[in-house]
Amino acid sequence: MQILIVEDEDLAVRKLQKMLSLIEPRLNIAGVTDSIVSTVAWLKSNPVPDLIFMDIELSDGQSFEIFRRVQIDSPVVFTTSYDESSIKAFDLGSKHYLLKPIQKDELENIVRKFFHPVSDT
Amino acid sequence: MQEWYKPTRLQIYSFVYSIPVVAFLANYILYGNRIFDDINIWIISYPLIIILCLAFWRGHVTIGNWVRHRYPKLEQTRIRIMIMALLVIPTMSASVLLIFFFYDFLHILGYEINAQDIKQGIFVGFSINLVFETLFEADYALGKYKETVEEKRVMQELSVFREFDMLKNQVNPHFLFNCFNTLSSLISEDKEKAEQFLDELSKVYRYLLRNNQSELSTVENEIRFIDSYFRLLQTRHGDAVQLNMEIDRMYKPYLLPSLSLQLLVENAVKHNALSKNKPLVIDIFTTAGNKLVVNNNLQRRAVKAPSNNVGLENIKAKYELLGQEGFQVLEDERNFTVVLPLIWNNTSDSGNRNFQSDERKKMIQ
Fold first, then answer.
1. Contact at 8 Å (CB) between B68 and B60?
2. Residue B351 — very low, low, confident or very high, per pLDDT cuts 50/70/90?
3. Whether the complex's predicted ipTM surpasses the cut of 0.95
4. Are A81 and B178 inside 8 Å of each other by CB?
5. Is residue B298 within 8 Å of B273, Cβ to Cβ?
6. Which residues of chain B from 280 to 339 reach within 8 Å of chain A, CB to CB?
7. What is the CATH number of the domain that holds A16?
8. Closest to A8 measured CA to CA, from A45, A63, A52, A47
9. B103: how many CB neighbours lie within 10 A of its CB?
């Protein structure tokens, strides 16, 4: 299962990577991007990931902008430090979100929901 | 506040200064040219008219003031004047008629009523009322207008402070949770760094909470605070954000609006793209002429961060409230600069609560 992490703080990226590998070693972090521009570029030049973890406040703006610039077919889990209201206001098909600091059981629930071992092969 | 049924100072003066002329006119209508050679008119009728007019004046004032009391608002001026006219014209006419009938009934100095006198009397009464009621209404409206302006000013002042509080409440939790998040990552990675981070975080929070109350802080305290605040930012963003400070010692006891440096640094981080290749560089320095300058290189984000400019507006409003000139926001292609005028601290206790006493001694030397 291929995962994209969109997050502009190195510390947060490493933490999420570590938690994910503890929950499910078969997950593969296909990419890590830290801005709107780099995420759009990554999505255009890589196969569609199975799951995207996306921070809302990126170094060059809010990640909602990514949706305006590129078609995203993967399920997206927003990660945010404080205010989930902005996610609710932004009308997307999926409204999964995790509040940071991310709780292990909440992350596990999300991963279990989207993890399909079949697509791993 | 004056009771509504009492005459105002203007109404009293209007009566006192106009009554000699009004009484003369009334007597002239009653007795015509006799007024110039019959001394009895001056001894009996003149004072009598004054007494009658005093009673009518008191009645009119009460009616007028009741209408103003009933329809007090500036927007109700039209209805107020209409009702005033409806009430005042009949009472005035009745008062005039009453005088003539009274004189006729008692045959005072041989007076006999006639239509010509009544017409003249009502005309004079109407003119006098028109002049004075207009004057009272203008006086009332002007007073009301001043009141409204003053109320508006107070409301504006309040809203500035309320906005500022709102801003602090908005910003702080967000920032706090970001910090928790960083801390949560740091703990497993670098325990020592996590401990330092927590120390700085508690310093920053203590300062934020304390300065919620005070309007002004010393440069010294703001700088110390921004130093801690910046360390938090740097832990989160690494080398993507840099801060250079050059503060002349002599300016350390000067005052500026509390938390304004933090607001400006936060704005810089919020509105600019941060990356290790193109770091955001913030310079904070003092210049001659009691100024503190906060400058950052502009690297606009691809998408503008949502902003209502409330932060900058707030600092500006605070300086305006203090009556302090010199707050400036300068912007060109490369830089964003804010100039904060520093205020001489003449009540050395208010802003220096956090000072240690030995630091005070150092300052004096």
1. no
2. very low
3. no
4. yes
5. no
6. 301-306
7. 3.40.50.2300
8. A63
9. 23
User: Hey, is B342 helix, strand or coil?
Assistant: coil
Token pair 């008062």: residue: B95
Non-local (6+) Cβ contacts of B102 within 8 A are B52, B108
Q: What is the pLDDT of residue B308?
A: 61
Task: Round to whole Å and give the CA distance between B138 and B142.
Answer: 6
Cβ–Cβ contacts within 10 Å for residue A13, how many? 20
CB nearest to A81's CB, from B177, B238, B303: B177
Q: Is residue A68 part of a domain?
A: yes
Looking at chain A, which residue has its C-alpha nearest residue B275? A59
Report yes or no: B78 at the A interface, CB cutoff 8 Å: no
Q: Is there a contact between A6 and A55 (Cβ–Cβ < 8 Å)?
A: yes
Instruction: Please judge whether A61 and B301 are an interchain contact, meaning their C-beta atoms are less than 8 angstroms apart.
Output: yes
Average pLDDT of the residues in A52-56: 91
Domain for residue A121, yes or no? no
Distance from CA of B62 to the nearest CA of A (A): 59
Q: Average model confidence (pLDDT) for chain B?
A: 85
Q: Measuring CA to CA, which residue among B266, B75, B249 is closest to residue B170?
A: B266
**Residue in B184, B303, B305 closest to A15 by CB:** B184
Interatomic CA distance for residues B26 and B18, integer angstroms: 12
- Lowest-confidence region among A38-52, B110-124, B337-351: B337-351
Residue numbers of the domain that contains A69: 2-115
Tens of pLDDT along B255-313? 998 888 988 998 898 888 888 888 999 999 999 999 999 999 998 886 776 666 677 88
For chain B, what are the domain ranges? 9-153, 190-364
Number of C-alpha atoms within 13 angstroms, CB side, residue A52?
26
DSSP labels for chain A?
Answer: -EEEEE-S-HHHHHHHHHHHHHH-TT-EEEEEE-SHHHHHHHHHHSPPPSEEEEESEETTEETHHHHHHS---S-EEEEESS-THHHHHS--S--EEEESSPPHHHHHHHHHHH--GGGG-
Yes or no, beta carbons of B181 and A100 under 8 Å apart: yes
> Do A11 and B186 count as a contact with CB atoms less than 8 A apart?
yes
Residue B235 CA to residue B182 CA, distance in Å, equals 8
Residue range B190-364, CATH number: 3.30.565
Residue A66 resides in a domain: yes
Number of domains composing chain A: 1
Q: Which amino acid is at B200?
A: E
Span B64-79, average pLDDT: 89
